[in-house]
Design brief:
Protein name: 5' nucleotidase
Oligomer: single chain
InterPro entries: 5'(3')-deoxyribonucleotidase, 5_3-deoxyribonucleotidase-like, HAD-like_sf, HAD_sf
GO molecular function, one term: 5'-nucleotidase activity
Shape: globular
Number of helices: 9
Largest sheet: 7 strands, parallel
Number of domains: 2
GO biological process, one term: deoxyribonucleotide catabolic process
CATH superfamily of the largest domain: HAD superfamily/HAD-like
Strand content: 15-25%
Family: Belongs to the 5'(3')-deoxyribonucleotidase family.
Helix content: 25-40%
Structural class: alpha/beta
Amino acid sequence: MKRIYVDLDDVISRTTDTYSAVIEQEFGRQVRFEDLNCFDLKVSFQLTEKEYRHFFDRIHQPDMLMNFDPVPGAGETMARWIDAGHRVDIVTGRPPLARETSLAWLDRQKIPFSEFIMVDKYNRCEEHHPGVISKTQLMARPYDLAVEDSLDTALFLAKHMAVPVLLYDRPWNARPVMYPNIFRVESWRQIAVNWNFSPVGS
């Protein structure tokens, strides 16, 4: 059985695609998705701390979270892995308040998974939250493959957990990555073709 880690935002859910419209509506600025060359949205959108807090709260409201489109091919590939007997965990850095809405969105989109795990990937939680694990706790969970769009998280998984990582191609991770365990991918179709795991027991 393979144990597979799959990130949620911009890997399963087309999340950041919607943010340029929010920035224009809330702050009157125009920033193209293609120009978001930093994973830190505060930097990419050139927001003050006050603006960023407002933006962060806005994008995690239920009406926003429920209206994201799925990334083409994500659900189908994950379903094939699960049907073949493999474990597929969704591992997200979303804040705890987004848990129930995130689960509702996954149910609406019929995206299967083995476990939904919230991790403090970006050191946002100032204190322990029930249902959110630390990166140290994540390290205790063995994975055979991960699909991520955050370069920093991909490097953490590859270096500290020895996990092969498929880095889903996005503007903010476009710089060259010279690490043997990280492989850049452009689509779920590419993932499905090249990581088509055999059924367990076959």
